[in-house]
Request: fold
Amino acid sequence: MIRLLLVCAGGALGAGARFLVATGLARAAGAALPWGTLAVNVAGSFLIPFVMAAAANGQLSEEGRLLLAAGVLGGFTTYSSFNHETLAMAAEGRFAAAAGYAVLTFAVCLVAGLAGMAAARALL
Reply:
């Protein structure tokens, strides 16, 4: 039961942080692309491998891993928003923007994940 509560509490924190980042970047950057969703997904792509490596190295407890990876970062990142925003651009006839955003998200999140793994190896 405590594991479920850790994931739920972390998820609430992550979802709140996602809202703040996404809405703050949307206002700052304009509406050309959903930069806030990209930012949270890139950050999560970096941080989740880092947290998982810390747990695998014994430097983070199972409870800490659940709180941070499944909870906070699971609530922080969002494939569903990425999908909705990409489909909305396509529905508006902005096919190049939708395709570019999808490729950008995939490529940058993949690189961020590799960077998170490398950072964990170097620091842990």
In short: The first helix runs from residue 2 to 29. The chain has a mean pLDDT of 92. Residues 2-123 form one domain. The CA atoms of residues 33 and 115 lie 24 Å apart.
